[in-house]
Amino acid sequence: MSDGSEDFNGNISRTGSHRQTDHHGYKVRFPPAKGLFTELAEGVKETFFANDPLREYKDQPRSKKLWLSLAHLFPVLDWARSYTFGMFKGDFVAGLTIASLCIPQDIGYAKLAFLPAHVGLYSSFVPPLIYAAMGTSRDIAIGPAAVLSLLLGTLLQEEIDPVKNPYEYSRLAFTATFFAGVTQAMLGFFRLGFIIEFLSHAAIVGFMAGAAITIGLQQLKGFLGIAKFTKKSDIISVMESVWGNVHHGCNWQTILIGASFLAFLLTTKYIAKKNKKLFWVSAIAPLISVIISTFCVFITRADKQGVAIVKDIKQGINPPSFHLIYWTGPYLVKGFRIGVEAIAIGRTFAALKDYQIDGNKEMLALGTMNIVGSMTSCYVGTGSMSRSAVNYMAGCKTAISNVVMAIVVMLTLLLVTPLFKYTPNAILASIIINAVVSLVDYETAYLIWKVDKMDFMALLGAFFGVVFASVEYGLLIAVAISLGKILLQVTRPRTALLGNLPRTTIYTNVEQYPEATKVPGVMIVRVDSAIYFTNSNYVKERILRWLRDEEEQQQEQKLSKTEFLIVELSPVTDIDTSGIHALEELLKALEKRKIQLILANPGPAVIQKLRSAKFTELIGDDKIFLSVDDAVKKFAPKSALNV
Amino acid sequence: MSDGSEDFNGNISRTGSHRQTDHHGYKVRFPPAKGLFTELAEGVKETFFANDPLREYKDQPRSKKLWLSLAHLFPVLDWARSYTFGMFKGDFVAGLTIASLCIPQDIGYAKLAFLPAHVGLYSSFVPPLIYAAMGTSRDIAIGPAAVLSLLLGTLLQEEIDPVKNPYEYSRLAFTATFFAGVTQAMLGFFRLGFIIEFLSHAAIVGFMAGAAITIGLQQLKGFLGIAKFTKKSDIISVMESVWGNVHHGCNWQTILIGASFLAFLLTTKYIAKKNKKLFWVSAIAPLISVIISTFCVFITRADKQGVAIVKDIKQGINPPSFHLIYWTGPYLVKGFRIGVEAIAIGRTFAALKDYQIDGNKEMLALGTMNIVGSMTSCYVGTGSMSRSAVNYMAGCKTAISNVVMAIVVMLTLLLVTPLFKYTPNAILASIIINAVVSLVDYETAYLIWKVDKMDFMALLGAFFGVVFASVEYGLLIAVAISLGKILLQVTRPRTALLGNLPRTTIYTNVEQYPEATKVPGVMIVRVDSAIYFTNSNYVKERILRWLRDEEEQQQEQKLSKTEFLIVELSPVTDIDTSGIHALEELLKALEKRKIQLILANPGPAVIQKLRSAKFTELIGDDKIFLSVDDAVKKFAPKSALNV
Predict the structure, then answer these.
(1) Which pLDDT score is estimated for A375?
(2) pLDDT of A54
């Protein structure tokens, strides 16, 4: 490499510029060039190990390191030692509360994924136990979740008809769950959790609201007791389907049950919102609704009068399902694709709330949990947002609340499932509608509208995509908008014209600070981004446009001509060959107009690359200053006198 | 909207902070909130009309506007009025020179696209005439180009076998050319030219070098006189094919012709490089080679001894081909896909050299030219880099040199094509090898290696992708690397710890300036990017990591504890809801550690959004300063005294 052979050592020796008007003796410095390996290693570290996970291991004996690794994999080892009875009391109450909430939800969510009701319950038994040992979050409640169930159902039914081939359908569901788990575990193990950071908050809020509406619409089937319902999820198909069936007459008993209990549930939710201490009212309301409505149906035998009931619920705990997973054939590939897709999306929404402490560690725990789940007749589970909130409010202390919940679910499976046979579908529809209402986060939507109109457009795009087309389409829109915003950000960085705040050495954006005055004969431009191939042309053109605008103004107002262009590089963290090329072109264009190019405060990476590309020689070392003020002090007085 | 209702007008009234130690009276300002429409309009303008194309139209009468629009579409109207005989002399010489270069190249490039030789010549007749009327560049030379021909050939032969079904093949080629033209014209019309800015310079250099090697390898067929040659383009398949045929013996006459003329061509190229004035030697060398070798073959009837010759060359100018384009059926879709793909790639490489004045205008001209070309038996043409360079050096003044070239090609087609029948394929191979040698830009590659090691990796990736896999695969790698770099840039922005340069008010990166000293009790961090959902979590974590590192150091060296964290926001051009959320979390984390959060110099967009989200109220207006120096002056002395 050609570094270090030059005759200046570590800073630009502005020869002949010692008589400059700088008020101090500082010069632009650049650190020694880093080798390829160092640069690569640092890049990898910042990308994958941004949270510095090995910090604890530093300077520890080997046995301690082993223990730390084990405790890293199974955090239970860490907190179990300090577990007290007082903590158990909290966990016990919380566990019971979330169990009462999850049992009816599980049955409903399983239906959303077109799976038998007991599979939903299975998924709240084994996975929470695995998570309790490996997870890092205290108050997350594990089990099936609404949006993920909807998504899995949508993806699976495109491959196999759940009504005609329920056996193959559930096999594919377990296969997809297995690969979802593998994907999660891999992402966690290879520390690729950061990949999900590419969906914007606004797009997620819009998508979630859209998904909530879609799930709600799907519930109209159970709510109105419609037998033949569309398989599509967009609002128009659903409304047509509803309209067609309404003409044929609905089952009034079903509607009565659904509507009265929905009103009950929403009332308890409202009460809980008004008085946080009464959160348990809304938490146990679903179970109470199920019990009362089941009892009513059983007594009146309303199912004989057309009220649809759960029926197909099996007794007993999870049977093994290892042999059901497709290990060969075309469904292996399909299961893989669906699993990866479901988890890529599910992961995204996990990031919305602040439940994750160490994203990558959490992914590993969730992944292992789903792998084991797929072999014990469970479908994809994750942390449920609504139940996690209840868990927290019910005073959970550790992941033991999940264990309590799992045990309750187990007892339910062993003892009381036969009773659920007479549970009307309408009540499950009401419970799901009640649960997804809170996914419509209109407060955040309003905040986004206030803060950033463009972001709000992204939100609307994702929302209408889900509601009017499909979940996948809405997601596509969300991703496209998010990526588009990123790309726009890097192709069209902001630039600002700077002026001096009188009696200070501060140079600021003249648009923001009208009191900042321009220095006669000098134009100061700040570029607010790294200069890369994506924006190098634009930056050059934009600077020349500032100059043209300035010149027009000068002609009109008969001011002195611009003789110096100072480019403030403080925010320019990096530059590449295209960027340097653009600077060279800028220099040429300025030379034609007899304007001198001056650079202020280039950062370490920038000055080093400018030097490697010999741009510092081209422009002249005496044209590079530590601050705008230094540069102005050197050049401005002269030119101002020239007027 | 909630703007303007607050009781401060346009600046944060730091109540109670008037006794602050600021040495001036300036406060952080924010401009009035912009409406949705203004914001949208400005965004569209900066994205699509960054070069402000309507500047000329301002304040002009209607007739003038019409004339400007016409002249905008047909720049010939503009420059034709000032065309002189002196200019024509330059154009005439340049036109003859590029004609002598393009005739043999066209025949060779057509073979690269698996099209008959005369189609190559057709493509140098009609398209240059259209371009001359509509193009903006003076020295671009229009016609078939090496990489684009290779790419079109690769894409087309995947659909139709050019040997078995030459008629259908050429029909698909015209269809693809038509849609390539439409795509170009649309991109130009809708000002989407900026889309191509997403391929990094390094990836393009690597791809081009790889394509040159691939094209060179393909020429071994003609060069060695191999009859059965692999259809794959990767180096391993080609080498196996060559090796297999070498065993069966080669045609020594073919190799003799190819090798001797390649030596001649490379020698002339070297001479031209050493002495720029002798560029014409290398420019006419190909035509001379063709004439001499054709004459030799004709005299010795070497074709009877196994020397492959061009043979299938038709006399006469372009026949119409409108009826040959697939307007219906599956090939319509395929032709569309290939055309779009070819142009998306071709466009990318056009940006490499600085031939474009107005990218979008140029696209419109090239698109129209290809649409007309597809109806007159031409295949996709563009500006050839090597011929454009010759055109410039030969002293072209306007696009008339393209007209001269077109006329020479027309005369060739009408009068002398029968003579090309005996041109040996080996000579065409030599000419193409000679032409693509200059695509291997090792000087730039070396510069990239010097400036940025990571960029060089991207270059190598694209290069080896093309050479060892295929053109498409190489391109995929190039795009993936380029996009990956952009995404990495936005997820992992740089941050820097700042220190004060003694005796100044300047705060700079302590890594770059070891003389910068930290202020006791105060940590100053600068974030070097807009804070968006992509990086908000990382930025928060990174700041907390700086803090942890600092605290460890303080414990070791028994220094005073950090009490104030100043975040310098000058480079933070924008923030979104995720970013604000991250700041809120940072504030919470700091409150736990009893550290005060202070913001310095937020830009207009940032302060406005912080205010909309009420973060300014949360942190307190007296914690927001115009500069780091102001903040330090207010807080540092106190804390320093606390030691």
Answers:
(1) 94
(2) 67
Q: Per-residue pLDDT averaged across B120-130, rounded? A: 93
Segment A208-229 shows an average pLDDT of 84
The closest CB to that of A577, out of B452, B580, B627, belongs to B452
- Residues 298-317 in A contacting B (C-alpha not used; CB under 8 Å): none
Answer for the pair A393, A98: CB distance below 8 angstroms, yes or no: no
A527: helix, strand or coil? strand
Q: What is the pLDDT of residue A125?
A: 93
Task: Name the residue ranges covered by the structural domains of chain B.
Answer: 152-384+420-486, 493-642
Whether A208 and A445 have beta carbons less than 8 Å apart is answered as no
From chain B, the residues in CB contact with A488 under 8 A are 43, 47
Parallel, antiparallel or unpaired: strands B495-500 and B141-143: unpaired
CATH class of B493-642: alpha beta
Q: Residue B177 has what pLDDT?
A: 93
At B69 the pLDDT is 81
Read off the tokens for A58. Answer: 């530093």
Take residue A353 and report the two structure tokens written for it: 């709330």
State the Cα–Cα distance between residues B140 and B66, nearest whole angstrom. 27
Inter-chain CB proximity B576 and A201 less than 8 Å: yes
Contact between A533 and B509 using a beta-carbon 8 Å cutoff: no
Q: For helices A146-157 and A166-189, what crossing angle results, to 10°?
A: 120
Is A59 in the B-facing interface, judged by CB distances under 8 Å?
no
What is the residue type of B162?
Answer: P
User: Phi, psi at residue B321, to the nearest 5°?
Assistant: -135, 15
Pair A381, A370: CB distance under 8 Å = yes
Q: Quick check: A42 contacting B, CB < 8 Å?
A: no
Q: How many CB atoms lie within 10 A of CB B620?
A: 16
Query: Tokens at residue B196, please?
Result: 């191509």
Average pLDDT of chain B?
A: 82
Yes or no: say if B42 and B604 are a contact pair by the CB < 8 Å rule: no
pLDDT in tens, A359-379: 677 888 888 999 999 999 999
Q: B11 in helix, strand or coil?
A: strand
A206-216 CB burial, b ≥16 within 10 A, e <16: bbbbbbbbbbb
Q: In this predicted model, what pLDDT tens digit does every residue of A423-441 receive, in sequence order?
A: 888 888 898 888 888 888 8
pTM of the model: 0.71
Instruction: Please state, as a whole number, how many other Cβ atoms lie within 10 Å of the Cβ of residue A379.
Output: 29
Higher pLDDT, B449 or B454: B449
Interface test mutation site (partner A, options B194, B524, B588, max chain A beta carbons within 10 A): B194
The whole-chain average pLDDT of chain A stands at 82
Nearest residue to B541 (alpha-carbon basis) of A348, A53, A138, A43: A53
State whether B613 and A194 contact (CB < 8 Å): no
Q: Read off the pLDDT of residues A508-523 as tens digits, 9 standing for 90 and up.
A: 888 888 888 888 889 9
Q: Is B197's CB within 8 Å of A574's CB? A: no
Pairing relationship of beta strands B522-527 and B564-568 according to DSSP bridges: parallel
Question: How many angstroms separate the CA atoms of A228 and A226, rounded?
Answer: 6
Could you tell me which residues come within 8 angstroms of residue A255 by beta carbon, excluding any fewer than 6 positions away? Answer: A223, A224, A225, A426
State the maximum Cα–Cα separation within chain A, in Å, rounded to a whole number. Answer: 102
Partner residue opposite B201 with nearest CB, options A52, A491, A578: A578
Distance between CA B374 and CA B380 in Å, rounded?
A: 8
Phi and psi torsions of A596, nearest 5°: -90, 135
What pLDDT does B79 receive? 82
What is the per-residue pLDDT for B12? 42
The pLDDT-based confidence of A257 (bands split at 50, 70, 90) is confident
What is the second-level CATH architecture of the domain A492-641?
A: 2-Layer Sandwich (3.30)
B272 Cα to chain A: minimum distance (Å): 26
Q: What is the DSSP string of A274-296?
A: H-GGGHHHHHHHHHHHHHHHHHH
Distance CA A500, CA A636 (A): 12
